[in-house]
Amino acid sequence: MELHENKLIAEIEKLKLDFIKTTEKLIKDVKRQDKIMTRSDKRQQQEYDELQSKFAEVEALQKEIEDTQKEVVFTMGAIGESRSKETGNHVKRVAEYTYLLAKYSGLPEKECEMLKQASPMHDIGKVAIPDAVLNKPGRFDEDERRIMDTHAQLGFDMLQSSSRPLLKMAATVAYEHHEKWNGTGYPNKLAGEDIHIYGRITALADVFDALGSARVYKPAWDDERIFKMFKEERGEHFDPNLIDIFFDKLDEFLLIRDSMKDV
Ligand SMILES: [Fe+2]
Ligand SMILES: [Fe+2]
């Protein structure tokens, strides 16, 4: 009997030892696994951090490109305007007005943003107009008027060959900002919706700002006179729908004008 008991105890002892061995091995395995995990976690984190910093770099570069583009575009517009003694704020206000008109015409946000950047270049063609014509005080004679009017075509010629969508848009703006809804504008006497919406929008924004500012050949008009003219030119010079938007949102246009006065 005792023998049998001893055998049993020995077996239990052996089982106990086996159990301890197995447990120790398990613990070791778990610990090793843990180490491996931490190491790969670390590596993953490192890779993630590297990616993040690359993203940030690309983003900064993208922003730099966009900012440069905006500045170049404004500068080009301002060059066109300054040749004819207009202020730098003129193109900035025109940019804001075109944005509003585009937005309330229902153009997608991205296009509104683009037009805001492209519209300041409407008079870029003026860089090629002789000073004597450009800065002549008083009325143009027929020849001078003809020369002056070429600035739309000239601007288009300068920009159209670009493959950049923004400059392509600016080419359209330069080309069509003197067309009139009733077909009496230049250079192509386009009428109604044959005039690109970018041209129609910039036309209104440009004239609104030009009338309200003093120029070499005229004093600034007061609001009453501008509004009367806009009502008369609804469906004549200007797209009737855009005139409606203008009066509908007049507060917003005047707010822009007041916040970006010439100094
Ligand atoms: Fe113009
Ligand atoms: Fe202008």
Protein topology:
Layout (H helix, E strand, L loop, with lengths): L1 H82 L4 H17 L4 H10 L12 H4 L7 H18 L5 H12 L20 H16 L10 H10 L7 H9 L1 H10 L4
Bound molecules: fe (ii) ion (2 copies).
One fe (ii) ion binds next to loops.
Short note summarizing the structure:
The chain has 263 residues and is mostly helical. It has helices spanning 2-83, 88-104, 109-118, 131-134, 142-159, 165-176, 197-212, 223-232, 240-248, 250-259.
Characterise this structure:
- The chain has 10 helices and no strands.
- It is mainly alpha-helical and 263 residues long.
- The protein has a single domain (57-259), classed as Hypothetical protein af1432 (Orthogonal Bundle).
- Helix 1 packs across helix 2, helix 2 (88-104) runs antiparallel to helix 10 (250-259) and helix 5 runs antiparallel to helix 6 (165-176).
- The structure holds fe (ii) ion (2 copies).
- One fe (ii) ion binds at residues 122-123, 151, 177-178.
Low-confidence stretches are none
Total of helices: 10
Average residue pLDDT = 89
Overall shape: it is rod-shaped
What is the CATH topology assignment?
A: Hypothetical protein af1432
Distance between the termini: 116 Å
Features:
263 residues; mainly alpha; Hypothetical protein af1432; 10 helices
